[in-house]
Amino acid sequence: MAKAVSAPPSRGMHRPARFLVRGHDAAATHLAELFNGTPPHALLIVGPRGAGAGTLARDAVATLLCATPVDGGPCGTCRPCRLVASGNHADLVRIEPSGASDQIGIEPIRELVAGLALLPIEGGRRVALIEHADRMNEAAQNALLKTLEEPPTHTHVVLSAAEDATLLPTIRSRCATVRIGLPEAAAAAELIAERLSVDAATATRLLRMAGGRPGTLISAGATGEAARAHAQLRRQIIDLSSTLPHVRLALLGTLVTDASAILVAETGDDEAEEREEVAADSDGTSDDREAEAPAPAKPKRATTKRASAKPTPAERRARVRALLRLWRGVARDLACVAAGAPGSVAFPEDLAELSAVASRASAPTWAAALRAVERSLSALNANGNPELLLDALALRWPKL
Ligand SMILES: [Zn+2]
């Protein structure tokens, strides 16, 4: 029953006009081809968090329920399409993680399985959409398995996930899988400009801040303020090499406070990635005296409360992490310029300032500075004391 995946789109087909996903034309076309034939009963769409897998999954659902699909996509105008758009389609069940554990447990899956066994109310298909399916616990996955093995007629299950490694092999093997990477940058920036009502330059900067994931910014409700704060923080870090040690230390508090504005671009995935780095790098300056809950692993929702209230330890840690990630970006860019690769900098709009500073020290000096930031970030993720780590890094940063 397992189906082959990710064939390159054949000539003639193109991305369905009514798909909402942006910057994934090849995957969208591939999906349209799947739907033009016999749609699979189980479809899994995998892609980095915030990159568009959830949107593509919703496009798939809309197509499955549409009464008169066009080119493998929804028509957008029939009654089922209108019901899907308003969230009122009686044959669509949508499940996502909930509760303190932020998981999908067995109960909602049991209800879903029971619901799928009923006849369609609108006369078409019954469709289940499971979002963030990688957060289904094992019991939930086992409960879903039978439906995937012997799907009732007219029944389709669409899953979206950031990774499929946490899904049981038996689940994966029953699904037709479509994999996506990051969306094409120009299309993603256009989407951000539209959805967040910001100009093109701001949208581009926001997208770079979020590592190319528009969904992270859109669900956090990012604003131009985040981009402005990011630009200013970067300038301050770039200038840090020409300031005296006591000035650097005095500046850190403000930098951390200002970093709260850039939290909207933080992606949970990067934290996971950094936790893995920690495992490989045991240079953790951990501080056991500091007992505090780790920062939540899920993306932050609009963290708009600014410096007014005193931050909790978890918030402070999240701000320092965001500042260190930005700092790492500056260090990488300086190292690129110093190594004679200005074309590789992440924020080309900063190139003039980067070049002026990078030229004042050797390439190995900047490479060492980058390693120092990376070690600080690893140590922070290994529960190091945020203030001590920042102080040490500020003093270790090149003095020109
Ligand atoms: Zn339709």
Task: Please supply descriptive tags for the structure shown above.
single chain, 400 residues, alpha/beta, Rossmann fold, 2 domains, five-stranded parallel sheet, 16 helices, elongated, disordered N terminus, binds zinc ion
Which strand order does the major sheet show?
2-3-4-1-5
Count of helix runs: 16
Mean pLDDT: 88
Q: Give start-end ranges of low-pLDDT stretches.
A: 1-7, 271-307
Task: State the helical fraction.
Answer: 40-55%
Order of helices and strands: HEHHEHEHEHEHHHHHHHHHH
Q: How many distinct domains?
A: 2
Main sheet makeup: 5 strands, parallel
| Rg from Cα | 24 Å
- Compute the number of strand runs: 5
Descriptive report:
The structure is a single chain. The chain is an alpha/beta fold. It folds into 2 domains: 25-179, P-loop containing nucleotide triphosphate hydrolases (Rossmann fold, 3-Layer(aba) Sandwich), CATH 3.40.50; 225-396, no CATH class. The chain has 16 helices and 5 strands. It has helices at 25-36, 53-65, 79-85, 106-116, 138-149, 169-174, 185-196, 200-209, 214-220, 224-239, 245-258, 268-280, 313-338, 351-358, 363-381, 386-396, and strands at 42-46, 92-95, 126-130, 155-161, 176-179. A 5-stranded parallel sheet has the order 2-3-4-1-5, with helices on both faces. Helix 5 (138-149) links the parallel strand 3 and strand 4 (155-161). Helix 1 (25-36) runs parallel beside helix 2. The radius of gyration is 24 Å and the shape is elongated. The protein starts with 24 loop residues before the first helix and ends with a helix. The model is unreliable at 1-7 and 271-307 (pLDDT under 50). The structure holds zinc ion.
